[in-house]
Amino acid sequence: SVQAPKEDKLQKLLEMNGHTSVPHSYDYDLIVIGGGSGGLAAAKEAAKYEKKVMVLDFVMPTPLGNSWGLGGTCVNVGCIPKKLMHQAALLGQALQDSRKYGWQFTEQVKHNWMTMTESVQNYIGSLNWGYRVSLREKNVTYENAYGEFVGPHTVKARNKRGAEKLYTAERFLIATGERPRYLGIPGDKEYCISSDDLFSLPYCPGKTLVVGASYVALECAGLLAGLGLHVTVMVRSILLRGFDQDIANKIGEYMEEHGISFIREFVPIKVEQIEKGTPGRLKVTARSTTGNQIIEGEYNTVLLAIGRDACTRKIGLDKVGVKINEKTGKIPVNDEEQTNVPYIYAVGDILQDKLELTPVAIQAGRLLVQRLYGGATNKCDYVNVPTTVFTPLEYGACGYSEETAVEKFGEENIEVYHSHFWPLEWTVPSRDNNKCYAKIICNIRDNERVIGFHVLGPSAGEITQGFAAAMKCGLTKEQLDSTIGIHPVCAEV
Amino acid sequence: GKNEYDLLVIGGGSGGLACAKEAAQFGRKVAVLDYVEPSPQGTKWGLGGTCVNVGCIPKKLMHQAALLGSALKDAQHYGWNIAQPVHHTWSVMAQAVQNYVKSLNWGHRVQLQDKKVKYFNMKGSFSDPHTVRGLTKAGKETVVTAENIVIATGGRPKYLTHIAGALEYGITSDDLFWLKESPGKTPLVYYPFILHLYGIIAYISLTDASPDVSLECAGFLTGLGLDTTVMMRSIPLRGFDQQMASLVTEHMESYGTKILKKCFPTKVEKLESNRLQVTWKNTDLGMEETDSFNTVMWAVGRAPDTETLNLETVGVKTNSETGKIIVDASEATSVPHIFAVGDITEGRPELTPTAIAAGKLLARRLFGQSSELMDYENVPTTVFTPLEYGCVGLSEEAAVQCYGSDNVEVYHACYKPLEFTVAERDATQCYIKV
């Protein structure tokens, strides 16, 4: 392992001194392990510079045997199916609204899970296909194989049938992402599903218990309820940890008022099967976190959404000396996405202390490659990255939460401006007039610069995107005030 | 003698009310005159102006109704089982929209009361630079004097009076949003929902001003299931980016709206069946064509509402071509202490948010020791056609004209909203450019 860094250093010196790079007999310039948002973006970018690139992508089946194609979490079991099913739920609400706007149709409207899931899976299939074609067109070698390091500059790729091949490369990019965490209680892997299974479930989940309070948990709970299913959410402590808690509570309140039950301060301790079926019937036993109280409940489906673990423990990182955070499994990198091993880089969800978002991974992957092969110097800007949680009442945010702002700048230096608003579209169908909410957090000491933007309401993502650009430009409260609104839209608030 | 009020606002719309309420905040004695002259078809409405009663608000709600119609179609792809056929009942929607608008009228009256602004439901005209004569519907007269006067009377839809039958048989946006079910209540208005199979409506637009009104209305009427045609003399959305304008109309055509380009109407006649026969000249083909419709709506621009104000008496100058009131950067007219805001002012965007902002800033300059002027640059706006169009800043043509094509770079992209994929919707016209 000592040799590898030296070789690289030598090469760098030679390059710096104007010599062309010493040819090594590496198979590839770059091998990307993980064909998700970050990995594919980087691979395709590298191909633009005519580098010889390989992508290794492999999906270990879920405990229930589920698997999927090229594209990573976002495309297959994340953003894409989630947003489509969220849209299905929103359309259910739209159906109800439309009656007040004069549309007439039968009173009883039911949702067919299979119709939706088939459409969604078909679309995902087209994306998987699109990615394969795209890689081929760009001359990126793709192998559906599990990659792991076996020595310096060398990976072993093992395909579905168990056949193994060795490949070498000058540089590596680890972009293996994460997978859902399990509780470690009796019955969890046998009977529970995760988001990895939900979006391709070949039967309607029925009465569902969602365990967790992450955005994954709340988004899934929200969309399932919107499709007409009976949903309960079991929360250990707080909702949406890491997000603005004022808004998190409003989201929870809204969900509760709209038919989703919450069981607070309990954790499941065992899951048993009462009856097999599609769906079957499960009995969940849970214990209070504040005492010894035990409760039981019966559900058709139990969806675990308690967090995700980085896929870094079984890819041979120890063989090449890449350090990981032993507790979280995440990989610390410098601001150029470089691990402690100079020729090994990492992007995406596996990075320590970085946002787990597709656009961030894509941007980081692209810029990294531009720096490696294109002579660019731009680094990925991880500050003021906007995001949206697609709960029934959508939440768009950019910048600091109120708590973090107070912590960083001090309460006396923060001013919060806020307002409830009633979307015009909600008036006619008499929907809630005091739930939609917007707030901005300003730094008084810095010209009342807007350091936090939060909006709770329809199309939150569309609203937030523009404001993120404004914040990047240093938007101040005064500039915001002098911006004329578009009328009548939610964003003018 | 001493003037009765510190501020008199003529016109209780977006600009007028914002100005009046802001002035009241400074503890000033304020009065508002608002009066709605019924449309030729007899339609009238309450306090709040165009936006609230016959503009933005009802337009957006009906646009939403149409969007929900599309949502119903999408929903099937997403697994919702809706038995066909699905149809739309105008009266249910109209009632709901009108009720909401009325609640806003009420809200405005209460707000004025709370802020101690005196409200007169009267038509105002100038006697002298500080005196206005208010006339009620019944003819009762009240004289009001004020130190400062703000004219915010807005505009009303134009009619093509030179076309036979245009005034008697046509409606405008003033009437469209208030159409109810029973013909008895509003005679001479033709109802779009009658004979659903033949529910045909013609929109005639000269696209010189308020071009978006005709397209927006045609858009939502099509979305509600009505057979709708737009007739235009020249180009759609004049003044807007032309590439975007054609994407908007292309989408409308694929959505089901018929668009007759390069045509202008020559006469409108009423048939025995109560339908309207419209004759027009097709300038491309050089021939006359004719067809019958249930309703004909004019969206040929808006004229500033200044006729009965008696502006000549006090010397307030207007633009000879447009008739709008000429103001400087501080919203001042040619007469000291007389100001104007909103759609009535020359050279300003005809938008509610700009009227509101201008009205508020004016009040602050008059009574609040502020010197901040209204900034009309980079005002964002949106046209709520079936495929919505949002824009801010220069159109491509204006940019090239202003900076030269060598100095302008355009970045653009087509895109497909994720929601369209499963719904199998066509995204050909979804587009963005900077």
Describe this structure in words.
Chain A is an alpha/beta fold and about 500 residues long. Chain A folds into 3 domains: about 170 residues, FAD/NAD(P)-binding domain (3-Layer(bba) Sandwich); about 130 residues, FAD/NAD(P)-binding domain; about 90 residues, Enolase-like, domain 1, CATH 3.30.390.30. In chain A, strands 1, 2, 5, 6, 7, 8 and 19 form a 7-stranded mixed beta sheet that branches. A 5-stranded parallel beta sheet of chain A has the order 10-17-11-12-13. Chain A has a 5-stranded antiparallel beta sheet with strand order 20-21-24-23-22. In chain A, helix 2 packs parallel to helix 11, helix 4 crosses helix 5 and helix 4 crosses helix 8. The longest helix of chain A has 25 residues. Chain A is globular and about 70 Å long. With about 425 residues, chain B is an alpha/beta fold. Chain B folds into 3 domains: about 180 residues, FAD/NAD(P)-binding domain (3-Layer(bba) Sandwich), CATH 3.50.50; about 140 residues, 3-Layer(bba) Sandwich (FAD/NAD(P)-binding domain), CATH 3.50.50; about 40 residues, no CATH class. Helix content of chain B is about 30%, strand content about 25%. Chain B is built from 12 helices and 23 strands. In chain B, strands 1, 2, 5, 6, 7, 8 and 19 form a 7-stranded mixed beta sheet that branches. In chain B, a hairpin with a 2-residue loop joins strand 6 and strand 7. In chain B, helix 1 runs parallel beside helix 10. About 5% of the residues of chain B have low confidence. Chains A and B meet through helix 4, strand 3, strand 4, helix 5 and helix 13 of A and helix 3, strand 3, strand 4, helix 4 and helix 10 of B. Strand 3 of chain A pairs antiparallel with strand 4 of chain B, so a sheet runs across the interface.
